[in-house]
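cache lookup: miss for this entity combination. No prior model stored, computing from scratch. Input as submitted by user K.M.:
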Amino acid sequence: MTGIKLFDGMYDGLEQVLDLRSRQHALTAANLSNADTPDYRAREIDFDHLLREVMERSMDGHENPVSEAEIEVEIRELVPWSRDGNSVDAERESAKLASNTLVYNALVTGIDRRLAMLRFAASDGKI
Amino acid sequence: MADLLDTFNIAASGLTAERVRLQTIASNMANARATRMPDGSGPYRRQVPVFEARSVDPFGTELEQAIARVEVQGIKESAEPPIQVYDPSHPDADAQGYVSYPSVNILQEMVDMMSANRTYEANASVVDSTRTMALRALEIGK
């Protein structure tokens, strides 16, 4: 008899994405805090690629969620144009920060909704 | 969550660095015409903070290593020579009548101050948005 999967792979996927989003957040914060460090190169990860890998693997029905250590992360360093060798673009980083926060909050709302559905079902349809 | 807490620390390091920078700018502007140091060794020297990017987790994955906070390595004296101004009436004038003034350029300090201000604001907004994210995550399932 196959058990009913209450917490399906969707949660693992969402959890992974939340984790990646908070990493992206830390990287953006690191770039902004080093905005005045000479010779510091702004660092970026190919977030869409990472996300696709994570989603594909969690959709494949892997039992264990993939950790990001298994996925090769390509870290790009931006080329500086200023004289002090620093390549942090404050506007670009601020925009990334804002959009990342937005998507993070949207994801949390998504998880919330799924949990609310479960709660609804578990309470015989009474809220 | 640990990542979000790390982010707080990174943003805080940026705030500290910019505050130190602002302090050196204030010191430079206040002493722009100071011809004597307390030990009698000539004019005030322009102070420059030295920043260094330091990895938050040097033993982590490649991505974790790439995440760096900023650290104030120290405040160094600028190597620029003092500005010589001919003013024989000044008590600190040398035998030829020249007075050594600090190599402080008020305009440059003003521009530096504005830049420090902007970076400080950017780091403060990182703290703000991280807080929003952490609080939102705590509400999961509520």
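stored under new cache key. The first strand of chain A starts at residue 43 and ends at 45.
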